Amino acid sequence: IHEPQSQDSLLSLSVDSEGLQKQIDELSTLSETPAPSVTRILYSEKDVLARRFIKNLMGLSGLSVREDAVGNIFGRWDGDEPELAPVSTGSHIDAIPYSGKYDGVIGVLGAIEAINVLKRSGFKPKRSLEVIMFTSEEPTRFGISCLGSRLLAGSKELAELLKKTVDSQNISFFDAARFAGYANHLQDLTSVFLEKGSYSAFIELHIEQGPILEEEATSIGVVTAIAAPASIKVDFEGSGGHAGAVLMPMRNDAGLAAAELALAVEKFVLESGSIDTVGTVGILELHPGAINSIPSKSHLEIDTRDIDEKRRNVVIEKIHQSALSISENRGVKLSEFKIVNQDPPALSDDLITMAMESACQELNLTFRKMISRAYHDSLFMARISPMGMIFIPCYKGYSHKPEEFAAIEDIANGVRVLALTLAKLSLA
Ligand code: HGY
Ligand code: MN
Ligand code: MN
Ligand code: MN
User: What percent of the chain has pLDDT over 90?
Assistant: First the structure.
């Protein structure tokens, strides 16, 4: 029988802030680029070291650790009723090139510390608690965002696609995974799929990656929805040639075609009728990349998002039409127009957001509801489990750059809200 937890013992939630800060700093040194930047690419040597770091911390917290075929890592604290669907929490530790040391990381290290906080308070879970480190949230290496959580959510098309996916060095996904030690049963990635209902709740602690909480001096963001992301790959081909000898009327410049499409993306998102529509061309490569050679090929990758899925899809359609007309007008070939992902938004679960809000009240922390404009593994976990996200403020909203910063007091607040919310949901 589960004796009622004395709530005040839960309220004496003490976070080991110093230890947590040390872990954040140590993890940030496992990077392919020099401090203060962090670069940690899926299945790279630094990623493997970082995985070992996380598994070690999970072990020190008394969690039983398992990994699936693509390297999603699970650390479980068995509850008194282990047959019930567990409550889970987690995030990612991979980092895009030259980014910061908090994105994702505080939702993994903070989750492990939340477990420690509950253990230190004498809490006994009814539903087991599980910490998840998703194998790759960023799209950097294979161009696929939330690769690990998409598979956990049962994406059959991704399980197929990964059999023929290579990175920019032509290394296959399977060879890269084998390098990181994930060799067994790679052939059958459906083994990664989780059944709907595998968890009674999934919660992710994350920095806001926006300026609102800091501007409003609010401690906690209770996320109500995650915006709908999409990404597109485009290639143009022209005949190139000598930058001096080929006169302008004779040219079909693949570089200018890419430039014109990039500006068209900006135009379409600005004319969408909402400030919530965004578009970015973060990758634009010219071949051969010589000052005196007319680009014969161009490759651009477009990221466009909106909290309204239909409005976002209108932008995608306009981008496609524009690519076709640019190719026509400039006499360049549109050799690829590939929508890599076009995901719906996700809504948080009311029971989870209510548990978070009461946790904030009990902990005397100010909070506000808000949407997440960044995507997260929660976007896909929402397909198999009720989902919620806890945001903490970050300096000027900076993220995906080395200036990213979150104060340890804010991180500790997030950990306390996470710990108390996990406790409430574990007893539910
Ligand atoms: O791009 C994103 O929204 C995420 O932070 N990777
Ligand atoms: Mn990110
Ligand atoms: Mn993230
Ligand atoms: Mn994210």
Answer: 96
Residue 193: phi and psi, rounded to 5, are: -55, 140
Residues carrying CATH 3.40.630.10, the chain: 6-227+345-427
Tell me the C-alpha distance between 140 and 230, whole Å.
Answer: 15
Ion ligand 3 neighbours, Cβ < 5 Å: 103-104
ipTM confidence? 0.90
Phi and psi torsions of 130, nearest 5°: -130, 130
Q: So what CATH class is 6-227+345-427?
A: alpha beta
Q: Which amino acid is at 315?
A: V
| Helices (H), ranges, 331-407 | 350-362, 378-381
Read off φ and ψ for residue 219, nearest 5 degrees: -75, -35
| 3.30.70.360, 2.40.50.180, 3.40.50.300, 3.30.300.30: CATH of 228-342 | 3.30.70.360
d(CA 237, ligand 1 centre) in Å: 30
Nearest CA residue ID for atom 5, ligand 1: 374
Residue 11 phi, psi dihedral angles, 5° rounding: -80, -10
* Full-model pTM: 0.94
Torsions phi, psi for 4 (to 5 deg): -60, 135
CA of 32 to the centre of ligand 2 (A): 16
Q: How far is the CA of 157 from the centre of ligand 2 (A)?
A: 23
Count CA atoms within 13 Å of residue 95 on its CB side.
Answer: 32
Check if 138 has its Cβ closer than 6 Å to any atom of ligand 1.
yes
- The CATH 3.30.70.360 domain(s) of the chain lie at 228-342
Neighbouring residues of the ion ligand 2, judged by CB less than 5 Å: 103
374 close to ligand 1 (CB < 6 Angstrom): yes
Task: Quick: pLDDT tens for 289-327.
Answer: 999 999 999 999 999 999 999 999 999 999 999 999 999
Count of positions (residues) in the chain = 428
